[in-house]
Each structure stands twice: as C-alpha cells, then as structure tokens.
C-alpha cells in the first residue's frame, strides 16, 4: 500500500499535463506573430541598407564621371544576401542627373506594410505600402 501511494505522488496526472500544454500553446500563439513581424522588419532593414550601399556607388560614379548615365551597378555582396526577399536595382537607366533605386519585395517577404522601397539621387525615400510614414520602413 505504501509503495502505490508513493508512485501516485511522483507522477503527473493527465489534467496537469494538459494544462501545461495549453499554457505553452497560448504563449506560442502570442509569440509567433511577433517573431514573424520582427523577421520581416529585419529583412526590410537589410534591403534598405543594400539600397543605400548601391546609392553610394552611384554617387561615387557621379563624382568620378560627372554623370549618372552609363552607370551599371556592380554585383554588391548585399544584393546576394537579400535576393531571396528583395530585388534591389535601378528602376530604369540613370540619366545624366538623376536615378531612382528601388527594393521590390518578393513573394517570400510579403510586406504589404511598406511594399516597394525607393530612394533617388536627392535622398528622397518613398514606400508603396500602407505604413503611415516612410520612417517606419527605412
């Protein structure tokens, strides 16, 4: 009799186990969306940084040649890093005095909040998404 009492005390009941599983499920359902949004923001920040690196290349080209025309972006290391989530490049061929750089999210990024990010030769930043301001995206 004494041995069976001790074995009952040492174990978990099914109800206790189900309570723990329910608590873990609730915590997971709260944490997962926050995690996904954090990953999305991190990828967006990486794409914005890559755009700025490409913009700096364009400015160096302009300083050397006194025109943006004819500038071809080299294969920057950051472009390979963000390629799965963003396509970074010029919107069209650069003119003598202007260019616009953009980062277009791929299907893997699914960023309706900021959408396509752009920056031009003046440093003007824009977004195509539903975010209230550009500052939320860059």
From TrEMBL:
The keyword Transit peptide does not apply. InterPro entries: N_methyl_site, PilE-like, Pilin-like. It holds the Pfam family ComP_DUS. Keywords: Membrane, Transmembrane, Transmembrane helix. The chain crosses the membrane at residues 12-35. SUPFAM superfamilies: Pili subunits. This is Type IV pilin protein. It comes from Lysobacter soyae.
């Amino acid at each position: 009799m004494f041995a069976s009492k001790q074995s009952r005390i040492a174990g978990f009941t099914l109800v206790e186990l189900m309570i723990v599983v329910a608590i873990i499920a609730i915590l997971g359902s709260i944490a997962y969306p926050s995690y996904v949004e954090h990953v999305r923001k991190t990828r967006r920040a990486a794409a914005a940084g890559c755009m700025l690196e490409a913009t700096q290349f364009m400015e160096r080209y302009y300083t050397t040649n006194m025109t943006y025309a004819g500038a071809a972006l080299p294969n920057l290391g950051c472009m390979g890093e963000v390629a799965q989530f963003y396509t970074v490049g010029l919107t069209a061929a650069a003119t003598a005095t202007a260019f616009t750089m953009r980062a277009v999210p791929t299907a893997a990024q699914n960023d309706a909040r900021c959408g396509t990010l752009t920056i031009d030769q003046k440093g003007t930043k824009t977004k195509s998404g539903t975010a209230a301001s550009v500052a939320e995206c860059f």
